[in-house]
Design a protein that fits this description.
This protein has 210 residues and is of the alpha+beta class. The chain has helices at residues 54-67, 95-106, 121-127, 151-158, 169-180, 184-196, and strands spanning 6-10, 16-19, 29-37, 43-51, 76-79, 85-90, 107-116, 166-168, 201-202, 207-209. A hairpin with a 5-residue loop joins strand 5 (76-79) and strand 6 (85-90).
Length: 210
């Protein structure tokens, strides 16, 4: 994979121009999303993301771009990492599902680009400094609050009765799916949330403990 390669691109009418998604399904790294502002014609950096399997993430984002409508039933202002209100509301837990229809309504000629070959938070922040919608999990300056007594956190906590037990990501995703009914994407999000507040510790790329 080459840095700067287009993973997926559309023309102004939403027709696919380039698609290399199948080559990125299991590829780690950072992607950037660019698009042309429909009002000004200016090409802008819209979002940045890091993933262990960026093709899977982008595939879901594309589905949200084209198969979900803009909604007006959100109850929280969407504020990016730089304290800028982006002019729409969303519901907690459904960020992508509200964000990407907004992007599709405001921008065209969308393209996802392979920007870096590792899922690195520092590099993500560096690349995202001019992004319109990027958030590092929560608005800038707002610490993400996790309810440690919620059922998902109790499920994770019950896995470590003595402390020091370890699980592979596949084992965690299976348990989370079995006990909470989560799909893989929801399971990975729960794991990321636990890591952010120190409720899980990542031992290596695929192993977790407490």
């Amino acid at each position: 994979m080459k840095i700067g390669e287009i993973i997926y691109e559309e023309d102004k009418n939403g027709n696919i121009v380039v698609s290399n998604l199948e080559n990125y399904m299991s590829v780690e790294g950072i992607w950037t999303l660019h698009g042309e502002n429909k009002e000004t014609g200016v090409d802008e950096l819209l979002n940045v993301g890091k993933e262990k399997a960026i093709g899977q993430e982008i595939l879901y984002d594309i589905a949200c771009l084209h198969h979900l409508k803009v909604r007006s039933d959100g109850d929280e202002n969407y504020v990016n990492q730089f304290k800028e209100d982006c002019g729409f509301k969303y519901k907690s837990g459904q960020t992508q599902e509200y964000l990407y229809p907004i992007i599709a309504s405001r921008y065209c000629s969308l393209r996802f680009v392979y920007a870096y070959d590792k899922s690195d938070g520092n590099k993500e922040r560096e690349l995202a400094k001019d992004s319109i919608f990027w958030r590092n999990g929560s608005p800038y300056g707002v610490k993400k609050k996790i309810n440690l007594t919620s059922k998902p956190m109790q499920v994770i906590g019950d896995l470590f009765p003595n402390g020091g037990e370890s699980y592979s990501i596949e084992e965690l995703l299976y348990i989370i799916g079995n006990k909470l009914g989560y799909d893989v994407r929801q399971g990975k999000k729960l794991i990321r949330d636990c890591l952010k507040v120190g409720f899980l510790i990542q031992m290596d790329e695929t192993t977790f403990t407490r």
